[in-house]
Amino acid sequence: MSSQIALQVAALSDAEVLHHRLDRYLAEQLVDISRSRLQNLIEQGQIQVNGQVCTSKKAIVQVGDRIHITIPDAQPLDLQAENIPLEILYEDDHLLILNKPAGLVVHPAPGHEGGTLVNALLAHCDHLAGIGGVQRPGIVHRLDKDTSGAIAVAKTDQAHQHLQAQLKAKTARRDYLAVVYGAPATESGLIDLPIGRHLIDRKKMAIVPEEKGGRRAITHWQVKERLGNYTLMQFALETGRTHQIRVHSAKMGHPIVGDPVYGTGRSVGVNLSGQALHAWRLQLEHPVLATTIAVTAPIPASFTTLLETLRRRNAATISSL
């Protein structure tokens, strides 16, 4: 059965009323329901203001408004729980953090209706349905299919809202390791270039001016180890655009090894399970306990093999000089 919530807008100052959009007001009043879910309910016609369905999240609430919310049973659409093994790095009643392997798609999409991380999560946690959206229950942030590493999953709407707010406020820290082609001229730097959908190839992302739809993207980088014509790099995300590290590193002239979209296609003699990009470390504030959680995701075997191979080649080159 669906659940019902009734609210009446209390007295507010004129300034507060002017800035109280419907979605913001509801998010402040209903802390256990994420703002994104409330926005979906508005779009679905599940919210009435003074007896009339309101489908605009930007509607301004007025003092005395009566708001009625219908929350349908939160069941994923055509999603089946699948017993897919998970490497869990941290878990409690509010969230879990796991080490996603390369090759595992995070959420269902055309061509990947099953066998995804979401399907595995539904088998592991039977109460995730509807948290953060019916097709992406619990998912706080994405990792590309062929990127491995730490990914956080919320078990409650409150945790989902809190964790996404940390990402938006840039208080959560996400560090990646990657092997790139070439040797950067300096030891560290920052890339501040907007990213958007490629203007011609819509399946790719690219550096796109903000006036043409690009969104600001900031990536910090640091050299960890020089390996001749290759470099082990550490990247830290300040923003979280689709394919951000892959696009920025390619723009630097140092694409990630094994990247089939933004890379060079050169062989390194190692059978990689994806591009050599790994979400190595994730640090965030616990959504309830107000403690800091920091986890490190073990590097996958193929990534380790790549590093060992490049180190041997580099040592051999140096010894032959």
Order of helices and strands: EHHHEEEEEHEHEEEEEEHEEH
At the fold tier of CATH, the topology name of the largest domain is Pseudouridine synthase
Structural class by helix and strand composition: alpha+beta
Helix share of residues? 10-25%
The CATH class of the largest domain turns out to be: Alpha Beta
The N- to C-terminal Cα distance equals 75 Å
Q: Could you give me the name of the CATH homologous superfamily of the largest domain?
A: Pseudouridine synthase
The low-pLDDT segments are: none
Beta-strand segment tally: 15
> What's the alpha carbon Rg, rounded to whole Å?
23 Å
Arithmetic mean pLDDT? 85
Oligomer: single chain
The CATH architecture category of the largest domain equals: 2-Layer Sandwich
Number of domains: 2
In short:
With 321 residues, the protein is an alpha+beta fold. The protein has helices spanning 14-18, 22-29, 35-43, 117-124, 157-169, 244-251, 301-320, and strands spanning 3-8, 47-49, 52-53, 66-71, 88-91, 95-100, 148-154, 173-181, 188-192, 195-197, 205-207, 218-227, 230-237, 277-285, 292-296. It is built from seven helices and 15 strands.
Task: Please explain how this structure is put together.
With 321 residues, the protein is an alpha+beta fold. 22% of the residues lie in helices and 27% in strands. The chain is built from 7 helices and 15 strands. It has helices at residues 14-18, 22-29, 35-43, 117-124, 157-169, 244-251, 301-320; strands spanning 3-8, 47-49, 52-53, 66-71, 88-91, 95-100, 148-154, 173-181, 188-192, 195-197, 205-207, 218-227, 230-237, 277-285, 292-296. The strands form 3 sheets. Strands 5, 6, 7, 8, 9, 12, 13, 14 and 15 form a 9-stranded mixed beta sheet that branches. It has a 4-stranded antiparallel beta sheet with strand order 1-4-2-3, with no helix packed on it. Strands 10-11 form a two-stranded antiparallel ribbon. Helix 2 packs across helix 3. The radius of gyration is 23 Å and the shape is elongated. It starts with a strand and ends with a helix.
